[in-house]
Structure formats: C-alpha cells, structure tokens
Structure to design on (67 residues):
C-alpha cells in the first residue's frame, strides 16, 4: 500500500499587517502607528479589514533614514 506524503511549504512572513501587527513591527503605540501607516500610504482595505502593506512601510522607513 502506498503511503501519503505531507507536502509543506516554507513558512513565510505576512506582507499585510493588521493594526496590532503594525504596532509591534514599528514599536509604536496605536495612534502613532495609525498615523504613520496613513501618511506612508500603506493602508489597504480588504472588505471591512484595514491592513497595512509592509513593503510600503519599509520604503517609508528607508526614506526617513536618508533625512
């Protein structure tokens, strides 16, 4: 009899963050993280969810370092 093999994919980090994940990622409080995410243009709405694009957040952080 043939055995089944379990195929697993490597763990990947989520690209989109909710507000809690954004706070942890940035190390900021809720209000500052919300303001930073909006100003960076990272806010994306998917249905009723408000998610923040990590790539856009990283670009905004890189631009801050240049100043």
């Amino acid at each position: 009899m043939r055995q089944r093999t379990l195929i697993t994919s490597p763990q990947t980090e989520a690209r989109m963050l909710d507000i809690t994940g954004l706070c942890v990622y940035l190390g900021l409080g809720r209000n500052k993280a919300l303001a930073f995410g909006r100003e960076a243009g990272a806010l994306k709405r998917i249905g009723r969810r408000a998610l923040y694009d990590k790539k856009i957040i990283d670009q905004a952080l890189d631009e801050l370092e240049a100043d």
